[in-house]
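## retry 2 of 3
previous attempt timed out at serialization; input unchanged, resubmitting
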Amino acid sequence: MYTAEGNNAKTSSHPRLAKYWDSLKFALYCTTHPLDGFWDLTHEKRGTMAAATTILILTLAVRIMKLKYTSFVVLVVYWEDLNIFLYLASILFPLSLWVVGNWGLTTLFDGKGRLSQVYMATCYALAPYPLVQIPLMILSNGITTEELAFYGVLDVISLIWAALLIVSAMGQIHEFSLGKNLLFTVATLFSMLVMIFLLMLFFSMISQGVAYFISLGRELLFRL
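## retry succeeded, writing output
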């Protein structure tokens, strides 16, 4: 027997779940219709943060699966030298720099996209990667060394496809012209280098400060 409260909770949860699945499936439309898709993603509220994060998690999962399930003919993995956290950080770190850098620059020059929209559109643009890489993992276990070039072409296509979608997504959510969008794409890449330099400088100063206080503490202990 269901209570009125239980019925209300059940009926209210179904629209949210339906919205999530619709927004997740909408990523397929964005991959083939980037101009219309990314416009509707933010301006028509067709996308959700939950679906965007799901695509990002799926992309990271496929990257890890690729290490294990890709044929050794294609990819040789030295597991004893692999740090899985650094491996994932090599994806999440530049992604974070891109999102923050693009949002920061475009905000100064009348960009319409918010930080959450830049993140969401970027994650949606990653959809081609798992869509292409999952079949490639299966294909890799049935190819020979003579067919590696075909595999390599498809592998590069997934990366180029995602990169082009990211550029298209930024143009749509910020409502930039093609020239202005390309200009800010280059500017964002440059800002990423600047942020990396500043972070390296910051952590270098922190490490030197910590080293100084450690040596000072040791000196005090020695004198005492």
